[in-house]
Write a structure and sequence with these properties.
The protein has 4 helices and 5 strands; from the N terminus they run ααββαββαβ. The chain is α+β, with helices and mostly antiparallel strands. It has 2 domains: about 40 residues; about 100 residues, no CATH class. It has a 3-stranded mixed beta sheet.
Amino acid sequence: MGSPGGEAARSLRPGDKIAEKIMSRKSREQTAIATLIVIVLSVATYLVMPAGPLDAQDSTAQPATSSFQSNSQEEEHAHSDAIHHYSSETVRAHDAMLIAAVKTALSYDGVTRGHAVVVDCDHGTITLVGAVASPAAAQHAAQVASSVDGVTGVNNKLTW
């Protein structure tokens, strides 16, 4: 036989219930913040990305064309024309979030600092276009891009 202060009594402590409520509220707040960030990024992506077909079965719709241009301090130019065939805004938003994540990773790493590098994404495959300091820097930039969660492949078109 257990004592009166055994396991059953311990699970009913008021302090434990309060701690449980606080942890549950904190978890809900973190989930709400993460959801809000995804929504804001999705809306921002929708406003920035050019219009394209919402339905892949719409034979009259033209594919979305994205064009990105960037200049470095040396007036070098990197340019990427890509045609994307999105079947939904969700896929488009996912690609835009991957572009932002790869750009952030490259920026934190510093491998592309001072160089014109364009980052594009099509269904999870990242394309890097532009010029960097060396072949080793180009290879390193591709490794940084491939390490980002959600990236399914890297098409490295960097020159030096």
